[in-house]
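Sample 1 of the test manifest.
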Amino acid sequence: MKGLKLSRVLTYVGAVLMALWILVPIWLIAVSAFSTRQGIFDFPKALLPNPFSADTMSFFLGATNVLPSAGRSVVVAIITIVISSVIGAPAGYALARFNFRGRDVFRLVIVSTRAFPIVILSIPIAVAYIQLGINDNVFSLALMHCALALPFTVLVTSSVFAGVPRDLEEAAETLGCSPLQAFMRVVLPLALPGLAAATLFTFVLSWNEVFASVILTSRNRTLPALLVAQLDESPLNYKYAGGFFLLAPSMVFMLFIRKYLFTLWGRVSR
Amino acid sequence: MTTRRTNLTPYLLVAPALVFMAIFFAYPMVEAFGLAFRDNDTGALTLSYFQKMVSDVQFQPALTTTLLLIVILIPIQFAVALAMALLVNAKLKGASLFLYIYAIPLAVSELAAGIVWFNIFTNNGFLNSLLVQSGLIERPFLFLSYQNQGWLILAVVLAEAWRATSIIMVILVSGLQSIPSDYLEAAEVFGADQFRKITKVILPLLRPSLQVALILRTILAFQVFGVALAVAGTGISLLAGEAYKWYYTIRNPNVAAAYASVILILSIASTVVFLVGLRSKNGEAL
């Protein structure tokens, strides 16, 4: 009995240690991002910002191009969400509701493109964009991000739609709705929370993406592209504030999307 | 479906996604080889870009460092991810909070993760602060100097392990949840301790999940880019970083595409190795 309790305690200790492994680095970047310029160059460092200051963040946000780039990142993410939903959600619905020939093959293709190396995709696409004269704009970059987001959109929407009872849809049709009306009035409202999570996930994917962004843009940088392109010459306070600014939304988003993590990455063996 | 005739609806619903994937997956994949192996002007097959890549002074280090990174990184990640997954699955109080915390890095950009760890390893960073304050060293050690390749790689490994272990954890947790509890109870009845339960029951049943995680993780590790650039700058060269450099700085898309095709070939090769090497004895697929 005593041994059982001890192993329970050890399990908690292990769980807390693992949590610290994740949280301490985040804490430290927050400390740097909310220190003064002087505090950042101080040595040795303290584990609390001393004094706490918004100077570093406001220096970063006030720097040339930062806010426009952040705005562009948001725009790219929103276009990515719209396109990947318009293209991906119907495919997800088809996977959830229809048993068509080629369904398993399609599913396999989707599952196996989840980890497709963006490095390989972006170089040929960049060359094609330049030939077509559509490089360096938010819309073209969003299309590239869609390629990353689409597999996830299809998988999430398919599981979301599969969670809406088919009976409800059929009942609506019996009561005189067209299939489209039944979808709009019955399925969509029920699927909305899941779809919102898929949307957030796509947002994170696009907001975080570095390689394609820096390859496909030159003047119209997104925030990660701007930060990467200036990495060599940027001062420490700019770097830390930028890192924190990029990271901060992810902690909030994870609160909303964690329920769907297993849909995205789990149950892969089916 | 029961009495439906061949229904066109699902195909119409799937078509846009298929067309999009043909343009943004199939075309670039083929074209990567086109750029790498066809002469820009004449269109004839050529090895000149490939040779240019191989004879570049950074090619050998980039290839070796990328492979070294993967060899060190992946065992660490799987050990940590398995520990996290077992902890999440151990029915602790607050398990969902732990899951949330362990999953946070999944949403963290590789660039941000790189900066987070740069903040720790840089000359006046937190690691040096700790070491100096505790009296272990007198002056800050230059972990991220070009001369200390070992430390540079280790810093990148830690940053990447921190960032990209969550995804493995999630795959393993969902694998664990699909293991019927009868199996574990049976093992207990026959007197298996915790260690034996893990090695004799859990790990074998987890093989499909491990295989998927291994494939995904290895493919993604071949394209480590933002993390390495933020932590080590130009201090170490990796394949993805070289592709970026050739495209962006040197402005030679052909050599960049040659790097891309090397990454593609390595990704495919490692996938095949894991598919064959980890095949279950009765030959079932994924």
